[in-house]
Design a protein that fits this description.
This protein has 618 residues and is of the alpha/beta class.
Amino acid sequence: MSDKLKMHSPNLVDANIEKIAALFPNCITETKDEHGELKKAIDFDLLKQELSQVIVEGEQERYRLDWVGKKESILTANAPIAKTLRPCREESVNFDKTENLFIEGDNLEALKLLQENYLGKVKMIYIDPPYNTGNDFIYEDDFAESTDAFFEKSNQVDEEGNRLIANTDSNGRFHSDWLSMMYSRLKLARNLLTENGVIVASIDDNEINSLKNLFNEIFGENNFLAQIVWEKIYTTKNDSAQFSNSHEYLLIFAKNISLLEMNLLPRTAEMDARYTNPDNDPRGPWKAIPLYAKGERKNGRYEVVSPTGKKHLPGPDSHWLYSKSDTEKYIADNRIYFGKDGNAQPNVKRFLSEVQQGTKAKSIWFHKEVGSNDSAKRELKSIYGLDVPFDFPKPTTLITRLLHLFTSAKNGDLILDFFAGSGTTGHAVLNKNIEDNGNRKFILIQLGDEIGTNAKAKQQGFKKLSEIAIDRLRKVISAIDDKNGVGFRVLQIDSTNMKDVYYTPDAIKQADMLDLASNIKEDRTSEDLLFQVMLDWGLELSLPIERKTVTGKEVFYVAGNSLVACFDELTFDLVDEVAKDHPLRFVSAEKAIHLDHDKTNIKERFKQLSPDTEVKFL
């Protein structure tokens, strides 16, 4: 087994081939890649036959969602990238202790980088993607001809840095481009959800049908939970062409609906006001429910005698709810009410203390319950005190309801938003934790591109899209009384820390060798290397980090002794000291050792002093 880390995101095609190989080993074959080397491949014709109960003879018509560019979007989702996440301490709050992450960069790349570290760990995903109105922007993905080409291109930097393009309705692939953009991201996002997790997407009428079809394909129609109608505007727009549009949708799917854990909404004061206590029953307030029900039922018609001796029968085509013996028990227990004078038609007392302490969420959410576009703008104005630097924010109250329904206060649930916008999701998580003393965590992902034409944002000094959300989170946290552990760790997507020689050593010419004394780029710090190692080793990027000085060298301890890293010059004295802590993993760089055989000696030293430590070198 190699002692080097791969230092790139996983190749999901290879992983999928291995999964199929485990189920259908007879469907694995070999083919040559563009370099003429043999690699594993799938015999798709044979796989089709394995999954069919009739003889498969060529392409068949079937129900499915299709569009121009679908295959390319699948390729894009599966292809690895040679990128990393570089820590930005100066932009972060409580960097070493916080478990919240803010990732600046393209969300497709971010989702790829998170695949191993957060596989099956996200309880709720909320996204508010571009709505594809013809004026909004969509992400311009670079669809490559092959996985290798995509990987190679991912290691290059676009000098202009343009990630967004206008998707006008004159574009011949108006819907297709939007579908491709969403499909690759949703495909990767599903991998990150826990088995009992949910995904929620805000969307309008333009793409609601397309998005629901995408969700059906990626998550399965059987995992559909709801298509919520949200009243985003409560005034009438009289200048509208036909209808005054006042709603958007929340599309909700479960990862596995059979494992779903969904909370009830709290009862309102209005609901509780329906319960009174006119007879001062010691069991508290109650509501009268008729003792009868419509329809004939065997043994359901008999005389009910009140304590005053008044006799009652159910009306025509009606019956009493309970058997005669049960009704007599309820009368004896003062659970049947005959009115103030004891002669009225009998009713059952339903005590407030015995009803379900909550209510099921409805499929229509009104602005009075969860806020509106207007309340969201007022919320931002209260933070900035100026014009809101974001055009269409969502109210935190809307996200807070979702958090209440689908997350727990005490389980450390992780919430992901990979279209973070103005940072509403992070703000809502912070608010909800204060409300119920919760320990939820968030990962927000937002482009770091230039502001563009947003004049209000420019006036307030913002230069990048991500700065708006970062600044908002800072302001929200500054107003929190108990800031212990509250903060966020900013990570920026960048090209890999490694030079090309790390990935393609055979392609380096002899004349280039003098420039490659180190396979690490000169402008990268030890902490940059640490985070790429954490990515590669599948460690959560929110784990606590402690810097120590050991024998005069800088050493990083991640989550205690889960990972120890030293990129300074390695000595046997340092190895001896680190080995005393019995780290699960130890990593260094080849530049930290003088001679090749020192690497072998260091590994042997760990075998003697801490035999369970896994040792790797960059």
